[in-house]
Amino acid sequence: MSVDWAEATLRAYCCADPAQKCALTLELPQPDCPLDQAVDLPAQPGRPARPQLIHPAKVPRRKLGSEAGRVALVHAVAHIEFNAINLALDAVLRFAGMPLAFYQDWVSVARDEARHHQMLSERLGQMGAAYGDCSAHNGLWEMAEKTAHDALLRMALVPRVLEARGLDVTPGMIARLREVGDTATVQNLEIILAEEVRHVAIGSHWFRHLCAQRGLEADSTFAGLMAQYMPGNKGAAGHFNVAARREAGFSEQELLALGA
């Protein structure tokens, strides 16, 4: 291990208990020097035995007008936030040789994601449920594995594609939850949406930094990566939160290419 702060980060990364992982992440020290060599990571980050992970097409879809449907929604977002903790910690530990601000940024993202998971776990408890009660899919982490060899790919395809989808779909979730009077879940999602804009913006910043470092034009590089890794995928069911994506660092050319 090359630096002391990385040891604490690795402990959080390897921790399988969600509550303990959140606590360890929130207590992480601020990185005070860059990582000079990548940390030897396990094949998978720590995660609990439940929820059961299934193919995305097999995850049950329920209407938000029912309590079961709202529990399923909160559980799905809690699962995304749990994976997002591991994704942020993975970026911190995997990609050596970046500027100090890179590690500080992604530790700050991990802390936010831990708070989000705590909020949603508490909300599940208020609804008579718990994280792990519903099945879930592993799409977010599968993309992390595909991009593990290159920080530029990771910055392009995880925060700027998968996490950016949250910017697009969350306003619709909030509107539907307001219609059925679930103000407590709405409050949680409003906090998450506001903070996720910053997370995607951090991904945009470091994607453009790496493009500049390699002499690549960022907009065309992003379009090429989308075509290569996500052919036919232009975002969240054709709907885009253009204002949030602009704030998160998407250029007008990128928005046009996406069809936004």
Strand count: 0
* CA-CA gap between termini: 44 Å
Mean pLDDT: 91
Query: How would you describe the oligomerization state of the chains in this entry?
Result: single chain
Share in helix: 55-70%
Largest sheet: none
Radius of gyration of CA atoms, rounded to a whole number: 18 Å
| SS field, number of helical segments | 10
What is the N-to-C order of secondary-structure elements (H for helix, E for strand)?
Answer: HHHHHHHHHH
The poorly predicted ranges are none
Strand-pairing-aware structural class = mainly alpha
- Percent strand equals under 5%
Identify the overall geometry. globular
Q: Could you list some keywords that capture this structure?
A:
mainly alpha; 65% helix; 0% strand; 260 residues; single chain; globular
Protein architecture, described:
The chain has helices spanning 4-14, 18-26, 67-94, 100-126, 139-146, 151-179, 183-213, 218-229, 242-247, 252-258. It has ten helices and no strands. Helix 1 packs antiparallel against helix 3 and helix 6 (151-179) runs antiparallel to helix 7 (183-213). The protein is mostly helical and 260 residues long. Helix content is 65%, strand content 0%.
Helix and strand topology:
Blueprint lengths: L3 H11 L3 H9 L40 H28 L5 H27 L12 H8 L4 H29 L3 H31 L4 H12 L12 H6 L4 H7 L2
